[in-house]
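Subject: Protein entry, chain in single-letter code together with its fold tokens

Area: Proteins and the way their chains fold up in space.

Attached in line: The record itself begins immediately under this heading.
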Amino acid sequence: MVRSSELHSADCDSALPADHTARLAHKLARADALAAERGLALTTLRRQVYTLIAQSERPVGAYDLIAALEPQRGRVPPTTVYRALDFLVEHGFVHRIESKNAFFACCLMGEPHQSQFLMCDACGDTVEIPGHGLAAQLSRSAPAHGFEVHHQVVELRGLCAACKHGHA
């Protein structure tokens, strides 16, 4: 059995193959390995939801997922999809992108980490960049203001290289 820790590196961008189909297969293999390692039930619905999120380069909203699932499963109640999303977030398969109320596949699945997200305002492409240093710095700054941090999300918005140079 392949362990999930053997399938990724600390560099999220270079950890995956360039080909979209190979990237998706790599992400799905990581998800299956992590679920097996942890004894988690990656049900058919959870795997379908994860697959839809993992194949996107952009955060995906719950209602977009519901619409995408309909041809495969018929009408799926929103609460059912939200339960699958809660599972995927809780176990580190995906991140919730707060500002968009959407979900994005985690590039360091199975490893505790803090991430920042680079989100293109023009095309919507999103990249996860792990940043333990920045997360630690922000967490250390908060107590000076009498603030206790419970959850941290850093989202940076702007233009990706392709959009900046007009190639999107």
In short: The chain has two domains: 4-105, 115-164. The two ends are 40 Å apart (CA to CA). Helices lie at 20-38, 44-54, 62-73, 78-90, 132-141, 161-164.
